[in-house]
């Protein structure tokens, strides 16, 4: 089973970012990184190469409060959906976003010092804005890790919206599937309120053999296969050498090992969340 199979036709890449062209969509002055341009036509070509029909664009923190690029891409490409970044002081009318292709808002709760980038929104913003998100028909997306997640678990359970956790919860590959933070992720996933993006490679960059990630994905599949999504994380910011998204998709499919489960994660699950 590979990414070139007809099996994934019409499927979804649930995590990607756009940058530029900078002459039209400049980055925010206050930002934590300056990436190379990653353009809409390049991403649409990647979707075709992957054999997928739909994508989810996540607003990058390097754009701060300026969602012009994201909203432009959603208007131009009806097969794309979007995730914004909002804080309590963000002047973005939530009620109008769903009709423009937006389905969620992203927040960060990371353990590393300075882990939340400039331009990001915090867990406290999510707690304050959750009722408004619910009213607008939007879910929350949370970038966190298995060190920070246990302290946030109770707050997540109390939220009135679905929560999508990025990057498989930022697990520590060396600590195994029984590490407390990953156990917390499994417990949250089991509730049905929480979804998880199966995008493992960032958690494996320090591992000599990425095969160690298989056990983490299989634990998630055993817990709630109906709450899992796949994302390429294109254009793979600050990762050298840059991974090939086709190989990442093939890795996900190999680790899943079941055609029906692959279709569920790539097609059925995102259809229910992003349509």
Describe this entry's structure for a reader.
The chain has 275 residues and is of the alpha/beta class. Helix content is 34%, strand content 16%. It has 8 helices and 8 strands; from the N terminus they run βαβαββαβαβαβαβαα. The chain has an 8-stranded parallel sheet with strand order 1-2-3-4-5-6-7-8. α4 runs parallel beside α5. It is globular, with a radius of gyration of 17 Å. The mean pLDDT is 94.
Largest sheet: 8 strands, parallel
What's the arrangement of strands in the largest beta sheet?
A: 1-2-3-4-5-6-7-8
- The figure for the number of domains is 1
| CATH topology annotation | TIM Barrel
Task: Describe the SSE topology.
Blueprint: E1 11-16, H1 40-50, E2 52-58, H2 68-76, E3 80-85, E4 102-109, H3 123-136, E5 139-144, H4 149-157, E6 163-165, H5 180-190, E7 194-198, H6 213-223, E8 228-230, H7 245-256, H8 259-274
Parallel strand pairs: 1-2, 2-3, 3-4, 4-5, 5-6, 6-7, 7-8
Helix pairs in contact: 4-5
Characteristic key phrases:
8 strands, alpha/beta, TIM Barrel, eight-stranded parallel beta sheet, 275 residues, single chain
In a few lines, what is going on in this structure?
By secondary structure, the protein is an alpha/beta fold. 34% of the residues lie in helices and 16% in strands. The chain contains 8 helices and 8 strands; from the N terminus they run E-H-E-H-E-E-H-E-H-E-H-E-H-E-H-H.
């Amino acid at each position: 089973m590979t990414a070139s199979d007809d099996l994934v036709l019409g499927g979804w890449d649930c995590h990607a970012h756009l940058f530029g062209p900078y002459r039209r969509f400049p980055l925010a002055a206050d930002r934590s990184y300056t990436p190379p341009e990653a353009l809409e036509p390049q991403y649409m070509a990647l979707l075709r190469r992957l054999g997928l029909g739909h994508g989810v664009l996540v607003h990058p923190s390097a754009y701060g409060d300026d969602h012009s690029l994201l909203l432009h891409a959603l208007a131009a490409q009806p097969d794309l959906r979007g995730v914004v970044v909002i804080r309590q002081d963000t002047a973005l009318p939530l009620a109008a976003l769903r009709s423009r292709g937006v389905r969620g808002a992203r927040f960060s709760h990371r353990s590393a010092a300075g882990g939340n980038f400039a331009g990001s929104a915090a867990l406290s913003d999510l707690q304050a804005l959750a009722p408004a998100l619910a009213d607008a028909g939007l879910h929350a997306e949370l970038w966190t890790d298995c060190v920070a997640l246990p302290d946030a678990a109770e707050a997540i359970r109390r939220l009135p919206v679905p929560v999508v956790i990025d990057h498989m919860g930022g697990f520590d590959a060396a600590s195994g599937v029984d590490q407390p933070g990953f156990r917390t992720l499994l417990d949250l996933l089991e509730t049905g309120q929480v979804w998880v993006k199966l995008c493992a490679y960032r958690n494996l960059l320090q591992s000599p053999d990425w095969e160690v990630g298989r056990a983490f994905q299989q634990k998630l599949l055993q817990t709630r296969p109906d709450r899992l999504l796949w994302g390429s994380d294109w254009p793979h910011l600050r990762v050298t050498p840059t991974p090939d998204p086709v190989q990442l998709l093939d890795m996900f499919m190999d680790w899943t090992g079941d055609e029906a489960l692959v279709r569920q994660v790539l097609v059925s699950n995102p259809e229910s969340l992003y349509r």
